[in-house]
Amino acid sequence: MKKIILMLFVMAIGAISVNAKDIKPVSETVKKSFTREFISASNVAWTWLEEKNVYKATFSFDGRQVNAYFTADGQFVGTSRYISKEQMPVIVLQQLQKKYKGYHIRTVIEQASKDQTSYYISLESEKKALMVKSTPAGDLTNYQKLAKN
């Protein structure tokens, strides 16, 4: 189940704006589930991600933009948001500096569900760009090669 949730997050981030569809109305069940999870959210915009079979709510929460994902029956799947490298656990930053000398951090996406958190960090060197996945404990894995800007 954890692998399915994680894969759902990763795939959703990669192509959200291109593959998002607004044709499926958000049910009251999904809206109520959202309100229970995010009481102080504002500026909520809903999108149906047909290929993932989930709703994505994009909203402001505590001054930051957050995405939350819900199944059609209102089950909360998790969240994703951009964070700064300073917001990552220190051990993750230490491991990145050890393993990826010569790379600098472009972006960090934090994905969280109720039982798991992962970080997707895009890195760039003079010649290469890649995305690395990390656990909060600093366990790093190469995730994807990226196009260099």
Outline the structure in words:
It is a single chain. With 149 residues, the protein is α+β, with helices and mostly antiparallel strands. It contains 3 helices and 8 strands. The protein has helices spanning 2-19, 28-37, 90-99; strands at residues 42-49, 54-61, 64-71, 76-83, 104-112, 117-124, 129-134, 140-145. A hairpin with a 4-residue loop joins strand 1 and strand 2. The N and C termini lie far apart (35 Å).
Task: Tell me the span between the first and last alpha carbons.
Answer: 35 Å
For the record, the count of structural domains works out to 2
Strand order of the largest sheet: 1-2-3-4-5-6-7-8
The fraction of residues in strands falls at 35-45%
Biggest beta-sheet profile: 8 strands, antiparallel
Principal-axis shape equals elongated
Succession of helices and strands? HHEEEEHEEEE
Brief write-up:
With 149 residues, this protein is of the alpha+beta class. It has three helices and eight strands, in the order ααββββαββββ.
